[in-house]
Amino acid sequence: PTIERDARIEGVSGCPGVGGVCTFSGLSERLQFDARGLGFRTEGDLGTRVQYLATITNGEGKNTHDVNVSKSGSGRVVLALTDALRLAGFGGLHDYVGPDSATHHARAIGADVEVGTWRKGFHLIAAVMAGDNWLVGTDAGFSSTQALASMYIPLKPGGWFAAVEPLLRVGWTTTETAAVTDYRALLFTSGISLYVAGKNWVGLNLDWYDTNQAGSDWSLKTQAFLYF
Questions:
Q1: How far apart are alpha carbons 218 and 73 in whole angstroms?
Q2: What is the pLDDT of residues 55-72, one digit of tens each?
Q3: How far is CA 49 from CA 45, 79, 95, 115, 141, in A?
Q4: For the chain, which residues score pLDDT lower than 70?
Q5: What pTM was estimated for this model as a whole?
Q6: Cα–Cα dist 54/79, whole Å
Q7: Could you give the CA distance from residue 175 to residue 19 in angstroms, rounded to a whole number?
Q8: What are phi and psi of 26, to 5 degrees?
């Protein structure tokens, strides 16, 4: 239900290496651990409680030629303990050409838990991840954790809206600058979504971002989906 998955804020570009804001989704995407690219993907079920996903790509992103003979890989395994409780582990290996013109490999690993399901009352997604911020340097690391909680509340039939869904997101990220000093960032997102019918939806989010080096910024966003 968040409007911006990575909580981007216009004009903020202080995150070491990747620019923008330092968030869970921002780092995983811009460091190309989960970015889409040319390659191979497989996913499926092992029985009724285990799901898997694996990819091998050129590591350069969509519609971009490879720059070396190495590949990037990622994997994810989900254990569904119940229909409303899922645990997962994931990892990524990204190949890149460093300043020395040699191929290096950056690593990231993490885990997440999901409680509840979409559009059925309380829903929580919480995750933690750590890895290499290779855009800063070969020895720079990062860690990030994030939790998103929402409550889908159906409204009385016959009104203007089918349901209302308040949400709260909290994130904490640390990484390093080129001078090997700590960069710490805190993210809060509060918001509300109004569902008209089916996939018709309008939402409002307030993102507040605070760092130990560049102070704080905020952004108010609204978005609507219309299906017909």
A1: 35
A2: 999 988 888 888 888 999
A3: 8, 6, 32, 15, 33
A4: none
A5: 0.91
A6: 15
A7: 12
A8: -60, -45
